[in-house]
Specification:
- Helices cover 26% and strands 25% of the residues.
- The protein is an alpha+beta fold.
Length: 658
């Protein structure tokens, strides 16, 4: 990660590359040389350049710094090339059974697959979507770490070798996470394997607590002592016996993301989203720095994190201005980063005469650094819509509250509270009541935050995790840090939560990569069960059972309402037909027909649907999963159908009326 960088003179056009040497030699002269720009205007940008703007609030108590990458690459590509090193736990517990989560009224089905079997399938999914422009490395760790495969281009020959290496992984003994991390970092450092034009990432998956050769001074101090890491570090925790606080801290110091995988049913969607975000990366090592007068203070509002930096004073500059640096990590095409900062002014200071300079520095996966700079007077309030301002304020308030549930220890490791006090619940209730998003209940983004906090099940997971002590102890302590990461980094990390699902919706590349990975996970040949002797299901293994985000299907006789008002069976629908949605008619782009045998379905009234396809029974006002409201599960043999409608920014044009 780029942890330290100096402030250079602002550009007034597109951002040229800045060499690392030039960056170090640059001075702090920008405070006096940058010209003032009108409110809400941005520097001229090319089609492939990031936009940077500062938005002071009319309340004069805060501002929003907005970083907006381009929607898509200037040239059409399947995905952004990646260097991915998988660091996989092969301790003994990874050989435990990984049954499919049960649907209502059903017994858990055990195909004989272990946790490691599913991880290997996820690794093959990543491999399937790679080509010769990508590289893959593999590290395994138990009591010792082992380099299974160095970073290699994924041409046809090497992909065959990589698949053999993946299949050869076997569970062994203890959990030496530290050595696994070190070996993953070494793969990038050996042979100058950095700045290759590919997105560098280390993906660490474990199902337990490290119990062998942990660094005495702590993971964070050791990693921080390495200065600049050659790749972002992303951590994944499977199951409930985790040190999630540690995994979150490692991801923070590594500029990556932490994701929680509660059970086998979520392993597919978590890996799919993680890799799709990497394949849609616009820039890496992004850092935002704000320079402002000494008479005011700017404060971050999303709570404590390992990579949070203190405000500095610039003693060699006129009037000794202050400076705040914020590490942003990777930026994705089509997804903005919006940082709400609180303004505190010294008593008697005149805020209207103050300006803030924002400078963004980032890498496009090469040795060159790019810089974007803008200045904004605090006397010019933003013209952002009130709903957008409310959304970012609400998101920051939720992050701040969640951060208080997992405070930082002195060694830099997050540690969840042992229990949730009545005072914390009172604070939660006040947060829900006073959330700025409550003023815009019909705005999709604001609504999603309200649903994360207190929506009807299966939404409202924050309240569910905190108000039930059993839930909090079992899964809340792991889930809440993962959700916090999604909201602070503004990334979509699974199909499940309403809030994170709002991220990436304006990124065609992310959506394409996610769909391709999703299909690969479901359609690749199922792994050979390691625990076949204890299997309770002897039939064909359907990998979609371990990736429940894709189960969006109806039986052949399901009636669909056409734009004319007439109802016809879904099996008769063809491309180009106009169907009714809550927001009016939309045309069908494609129909997917899938033969199934004894598929588990849910009966909701007269409707028979897959368990995790959201349905609404009140014209789109609220949504539920059939698995949570079904009268009973049923077995279905025949064809199930999925309908893809023409794209639209209004989410209420996605569902068809039945």
């Amino acid at each position: 990660m780029v942890k330290k960088w100096l402030f250079g003179s602002p550009s007034k056009g597109s951002s040229p590359p800045v060499s690392r040497t030039d960056s170090i030699r640059s001075t702090f002269s920008a405070w006096t040389t940058t010209s003032t720009m009108p409110a809400d205007t941005e520097e001229p940008t090319s089609s492939d350049d990031v936009a940077l703007s500062i938005h002071p609030l009319s309340t004069k108590d805060g501002l929003i710094a907005k970083i907006t990458p381009p929607e898509a690459p200037s040239k059409s590509i399947d995905h952004v090339p990646c260097d991915i090193v998988l660091v996989i736990d092969v301790s003994g517990s990874m050989g435990c059974n990984a049954p499919v989560p049960a649907n209502p009224g059903e017994k858990t089905e055990n195909y004989g697959l272990s946790v490691l079997d599913l991880v290997k399938h996820a690794a093959r999914t990543i491999l399937e979507t790679m080509d010769e422009t990508d590289r893959l490395g593999i590290i395994t760790f138990a009591s010792k770490a082992k380099v299974v495969q160095k970073l290699m281009p994924m041409n046809k020959k090497n992909k065959t070798l990589a698949e053999k290496n993946i299949n050869g992984m076997r569970p062994i003994d203890a959990t030496n996470l530290w050595h696994g991390l070190l070996e993953g970092i070494k793969l990038f450092k050996e042979g100058g394997e950095v700045n290759t034009g590919r997105v560098p990432a280390i993906m660490v998956l474990t199902d337990g607590m490290p119990n062998h050769m942990c660094p005495v001074q702590g993971y964070v101090p050791k990693l921080r002592g390495m200065e600049q890491l050659p790749a972002s570090v992303h951590t994944f925790g499977f199951g409930y016996s985790l040190r999630s606080g540690l995994l979150k801290s490692i991801a923070e110091i590594g500029g990556g993301n932490y994701s929680f995988i509660p059970d086998a049913g979520m392993i597919g969607t978590v890996f799919v989203h993680a890799v799709a975000n990497l394949q849609a990366t616009y820039a890496i090592n992004a850092t935002l720095r704000l320079t402002f007068p000494a008479v005011i203070d700017l404060e971050e509002t999303t709570g404590d994190s390992v990579d949070k930096q203190e405000v500095l004073t610039l003693p060699d500059e006129k009037d000794e201005p202050k400076q705040l640096s914020i590490s942003l990590g990777n930026l994705q095409f089509g997804q903005s980063r919006d940082i709400y900062l609180r303004i505190k002014a010294s008593e008697g200071s005149i805020l209207e005469k103050s300006s803030v300079i924002a400078s963004l520095e980032y890498s496009r996966m090469t040795s060159a650094l790019y810089r974007k700079t803008t200045e904004q007077s605090l006397s010019n309030p933003t013209t952002l819509p009130e709903s957008e301002i409310a959304y970012h304020l609400s998101r920051s308030q939720i992050c701040s509250y969640l951060s208080s549930i997992i405070p930082l220890r002195e060694d830099g490791e997050h540690e969840a509270l042992g229990d949730i006090s009545p005072q914390k619940i009172e604070t939660l209730e006040a947060l829900i009541k006073d959330l700025p998003a409550q003023k815009f209940p019909n705005d999709p983004k604001n609504k999603s935050l309200i649903e994360d906090l207190s929506g009807d099940q299966p939404k409202g997971q924050i309240s569910l995790a905190l108000k039930n002590p059993e839930y909090y102890t079992k899964w809340g302590v792991h889930y809440l840090p993962s959700l916090l990461n999604a909201h602070t980094r503004q990334i979509c990390n699974t199909f499940k939560d309403p809030g994170p699902l709002q991220y990436g919706v304006d990124s065609p590349l992310f959506i394409t990569c996610r769909d391709r990975l999703d299909n690969a996970f479901d359609n690749l040949p199922a792994p050979t069960p390691s625990n076949h002797m204890v299997a309770t299901h002897r039939g064909r293994i359907k990998m979609s059972s371990y990736n429940t985000s894709s189960g969006v299907c109806f039986i052949a006789s399901t009636p669909v309402c056409l734009a004319s008002g007439r109802k016809v069976p879904i099996k008769t629908i063809r491309r180009g037909v106009a169907v009714q949605t809550p927001s009016g008619p939309r045309r069908v782009v494609a129909v997917l027909k899938t033969p199934v045998h004894r598929e588990i379905m849910c009966r909701v009234g007269d409707l028979v649907v897959t368990p995790w396809h959201p349905v609404s029974m009140d014209s789109g006002k609220s949504w539920v999963f059939p698995a949570d409201v079904a009268l009973r599960p049923v077995r279905y043999t025949g064809c199930i159908y999925s309908v893809l409608l023409q794209p639209d920014r209004d989410p209420m044009t996605f569902p068809a009326c039945i």
